[in-house]
Amino acid sequence: MNLDELRSVQSKERSKDSLQHLRESFYADVGEYICDLREERERAAERASDPFDSEEVNRLTDEIKTAEEVVEAIYERRVGKVVKRASLAAADMPADEEGLTAEEQELFADLVDRIESNKSTVLDVLAGETDASDASSGDAAAESATDTSSVDDAPASDAADGSARPNAEAAAIASDSDASPAEAGDEGSEADGADDANGTDEADDADDVDDDPLAGLSDRTTVRITSDVGEILGVDQRSYDLAEEDVVTLPAANAEPLLERDAAERLE
pTM score, two decimals? Predict the structure, then answer.
């Protein structure tokens, strides 16, 4: 493994819509290569009279930084293609599973399972076979159990695979809806009663959103892409090939993660 090979892989990945075949140990090989560079830099620093002014130390530092940036760009370009493959496989359409690295194989299998499970839940709700609120509660409980397992089983240092899994979020709105101005007996209590009423209405509105399995799909956000992201599959089942300086309107659920990691800027 060397920097020339990494750049060649990056160039080929950018030039085609399909995934190029990589050996299963590709990311592990890159990790070993970067580790060797760091060790070589340490030895060079020990030999140098002034490590900060050493030409060899600076060269190795630049090579390490470049290698890390290139492999991250390769992964971000490939992960969108893996998501697209998984969506095809979950829809019982032909999806080539060859040429994935070990980490990408795990991601692919997990995505297929999640898409199939979610699709089944949505179809049951739409057919009236399952109550939407019950389905939401079940999904939240399953997600909570998955998150707990992930924390317990996580290794001390994780590879930069970029496949962060969404955590289930729950919001509880506490309100004293029984309070009334008559019981309180003063203007302060009346204000409290009004706040309680508003809180109850907000809770009802939140429940209405949770009961809708398709809620949020119509919300869209226009952004400018600030770094090459690659191809992603939107929650609207459309593919988006995102490159730096692109201006695109995305589903809000896809735009927010890009905004949070400074890969995009909001335009509206």
Answer: 0.47
pLDDT for 194-211, tens place per residue?
Answer: 444 444 444 444 444 444
**Which CATH entry fits the domain spanning 1-125: 2.30.110.10, 3.30.1450.10, 1.10.10.10, 1.20.58.1030?**
1.20.58.1030
Buried b (16+ CB within 10 A) or exposed e, 195-208: ebeeeeeebeeeee
Measured at the CA of 76, the angle between CA 168 and CA 63, to 5 degrees, comes to 130
Distance in angstroms (rounded) separating the CA atoms of residues 83 and 36: 32
The pLDDT mean for the chain works out to 74
Looking at domain 218-268, does it have CATH number 3.90.1150.10?
A: no
Buried b / exposed e over 40-59, threshold 16 CB at 10 Å, is ebeebbeeeeebeebeebee
Half-sphere exposure of 80 (CA within 13 A, CB side): 25
The CB density around residue 82, as the number of other CB atoms within 10 Å, is 23
Bridge partners of 224? 247, 265
